[in-house]
Design brief:
Distance between the termini: 19 Å
Radius of gyration: 14 Å
Strand content: under 5%
Order of helices and strands: HHH
Shape: elongated
Number of helices: 3
Number of strands: 0
Structural class: mainly alpha
Largest sheet: none
Helix content: 55-70%
Mean pLDDT: 90
């Protein structure tokens, strides 16, 4: 499969989203309200990024690939 050429700022936003989500997932996280606001902000940035209007970004598979690529270092899929 060809690698989708995601913009650096989109990859970084998705990585930041994963980090904020993990921080919010721990029991009694510090700054939970701020983490929720951060997730909302990042979700909006990711969802409305201009990349999704390009030929490389139109397919739902591109969104899956972004999440896989940005969060891939955190887990490995079992065969």
């Amino acid at each position: 499969m060809d690698r989708i050429p995601f913009p650096d700022d989109l990859i970084r936003a998705q990585q930041d989203w994963h980090a904020a989500y993990r921080a919010l997932a721990v029991p009694r996280p510090r700054g939970a309200t701020e983490l929720r606001r951060r997730l909302l902000h990042l979700s909006t940035r990711i969802h409305w990024h201009p990349f999704w209007s390009t030929p490389d970004g139109w397919s739902p598979a591109a969104r899956v690939e972004l999440r896989r690529r940005a969060g891939g270092q955190q887990r490995s899929d079992a065969a």
